[in-house]
Structure formats: C-alpha cells, structure tokens
Design a protein that fits this description.
GO cellular component, one term: cytoplasm
CATH topology of the largest domain: Rossmann fold
Helix content: 25-40%
Mean pLDDT: 89
Order of helices and strands: EHEHHHHHEEEEHEHHEEHEEHEEEHE
Pfam families: CofD
Number of strands: 15
GO biological process, one term: regulation of cell shape
CATH architecture of the largest domain: 3-Layer(aba) Sandwich
Largest sheet: 8 strands, parallel
Structural class: alpha/beta
CATH class of the largest domain: Alpha Beta
Radius of gyration: 19 Å
Number of helices: 12
Organism: Pisciglobus halotolerans
Protein name: Putative gluconeogenesis factor
Oligomer: single chain
CATH superfamily of the largest domain: CofD-like domains
Strand content: 15-25%
Low-confidence stretches: 1-6, 335-343
Strand order of the largest sheet: 3-2-1-7-8-10-12-15
C-alpha cells in the first residue's frame, strides 16, 4: 500500500458505492479536507430515479444527487431546494426531487451524464470530484444459488434467495465501460474505499465493470472495505462480516481488499424501527478468524451511530480512522501484513 506521507499534500481518497451510506462518509472526508473522488453506481432502477431512468433512458440520478449535495459548498437553503421532493398529490411530479429533474435535464442538454455532473459540480461549488461509474445506465442481474435469475436492482432482493453472483449489462449488451477519469482516479489514489452500502446492489455493480475491477486490483492504494452494520433483506441475510469480504473476493476472483473496518458497537435490542427500516434485519455477526483469512488488516471499533430509531455508521469516527491510516506507516506495503487491531 502506498499512503500519503506527512506532507502538506492532502490524501487522495476515492470512495466507490451508492445508496445512503456514501454521503455520510463524504461529508466527513470533506470536513477533513481530503482530496475526494466519488465514483457512483448507475445500476439503480427503483423509486423515482427508476422512473426517470425508464422514461428518459437516462442514468438514474438519485445517488449522484445525494453525493453532489454532500460535497457542495452552496448555502443550505439552496441544498434544501435541490433535495425537495414534490408531494404525492402532485400527479406526474409526485415524489420526484428537483435535483433529480435538474440532473436529468442537464444530461439531456449536454448529451451525456458525465458532462452534466461536471457542470453541476461547478455550479454547486463541489469540493472534490464526482464521476458516474459508467456513462450509460447499467442493468443489474443476479444468479441465485438454485440456478434461477433476476434482473433489475429493485427486483433482486424480492425473492429472498441466496445470491451466487451478480453481473451488469448495458442496454446494447456491450461490455460496460468506465466513465472518463474513473480509472486514473483509482490508480492515482492513496486509498480506495468501498462502502458502506448494499453489498450486491451498491458496491459490486461498480466492480463488475471490467475496467474498474482491473484498476482496483492493480492500484497501489490501500483498498478499504467498510463492512455493513446490519444484514439486509434478500441480500446478506445470515451474513457475517467475513462473508461480506468473501463475496467481494469471489466476484473479483482474487483477494484484493487490504483493510476491513468493522463495527463492534452493539445495537440495543428492539431499538430499530422495523417498519421504517424494513430492509434491515439483524446486526452482522463477527467472524474475526474468517476476516483474518481474507485480508491483511482488520480494524475494529465502535463505529455505531444510533439516531431516530435507525442504525448508521458514525461518519466522523469512520473518517478519523481512514485519515489515521492515510498517515500511518504501518499501513505501507500492500498485502504484506496479517494483523488484528482492536481499538
């Protein structure tokens, strides 16, 4: 692993994923003034993003909208306007956020999502870089262990079958290509962070783009996986933290993760609102022996944040750990240590 030394240069940190976990970490990295690049999944086909994707044959905007806001320096009032969702009684606009509509309109105006996001980044005074993983929408496919299949990110968890593997395709069935500057960002990074986010539907879709998979395997950066706190309905039911990493390595056909961050804070019994957070089941079980067999370095700490009867990663604590790794010489030397560290 090559890491930022104690110089005035900000650590170059690339974070890959999607969903609600990504902005939490990006907010913290921005506050610490890291040189941040967010690479965002384009396989989402659910909710209002999915509606815009299908009606306009466009890259789904929702995850990119949240990332842009998390790295933006525009006033909070402007962010609130960008994030505003129309009420359910507003007929054709019901549930759509203004930001999603602006991103979709900008992509149509510029002719592609990449240039649209770069222009919006300037307009929104984004601190860092935001790139779609691919410049066209991807369809996510799952093959279950019983041999059956499903297509569409929003459909994969419905059967609650155990997933053998996932893959992505373009509309034209051509091999997906990484968006501009994605590969160079990964190869030039000090640290590449995966997650937190849904394993099969937010993280792996990006890694199933062959160019991105190759870059993540070849980069000299410290590749860090932030393990989920809770198991997820239809995706990671009954998973341990080691199972999460095993799935990543199986999909990439080699062990490529250098460091895993795992939460050891305990979620209080009956704390979580099961109706509001209905896709999350139970706390991920720990298998430190299994983790040590998969990765050179395991970092365990209480990364738990309990808020509004929901369970989240504490962004400040996670980012503190990422920064400590960025400047700590013990993390240099890719895949050359087998060490357990409990903080």
């Amino acid at each position: 692993m090559m890491n930022a030394k104690k110089t005035n240069r900000r650590p170059r940190i690339v974070i890959i994923g999607g969903g609600t976990g990504l902005p939490v970490i990006l907010n913290g990295l921005k506050a610490k003034q890291a040189d941040v690049t967010a690479i965002v999944t384009v396989a989402d086909d659910g909710g209002n993003s999915g509606v815009l994707r299908n009606e306009m044959n466009a890259v789904p905007p929702g995850d990119m909208r949240n990332v842009l806001v998390s790295l933006s320096n525009i006033p909070h009032m402007h962010k609130d306007i960008f994030q505003y969702r129309f009420a359910s009684k507003d007929n054709s606009l019901a549930g759509h956020s203004i930001g999603n509509l602006i991103i979709s309109a900008m992509a149509e105006m510029k002719g592609n999502i990449y240039e649209a996001i770069q222009l919006l980044s300037k307009m929104m005074l984004v601190e860092g870089h935001v790139y779609p993983a691919c410049e066209e929408p991807l369809e996510l496919h799952a093959v279950y262990k019983d041999g059956s299949t499903a297509s569409g990110e929003s459909n994969i968890a419905k059967s609650r079958k155990e997933i053998e593997h996932i893959y992505v395709t373009t509309k034209g069935e051509t091999e997906p290509k990484a968006a501009r500057k994605v590969i160079s960002s990964i190869l030039n990074a000090d640290m590449v962070v995966l997650g937190p986010g849904s394993l099969f539907t937010s993280i792996l879709p990006n890694l199933m783009i062959p160019e991105i998979a190759k870059a993540v395997q070849e980069t000299s950066a410290n590749v860090v996986y932030i393990c989920n706190i809770m198991t997820q309905l239809g995706e990671t039911e009954n998973f341990t933290d080691a199972n999460h990493v095993e799935v990543l390595h199986r999909h990439m056909k080699q062990k490529f993760v250098d460091t895993v961050l795992v939460n050891i804070g305990e979620v209080p019994e009956n704390y979580m609102d099961k109706e509001k957070y209905d896709e999350y089941l139970v706390q991920v079980a720990h298998d430190f022996k299994g983790l040590q067999a998969e990765v050179p370095m395991v970092i365990s700490n209480n990364f738990l944040k309990l808020e509004n009867n929901g369970v989240f990663h504490d962004g400040e604590k996670v980012v503190e750990e990422l920064f400590r790794m960025s400047f700590d010489p013990q993390y240099s030397g890719k895949k050359n240590k087998l060490q357990m560290e409990s903080l």
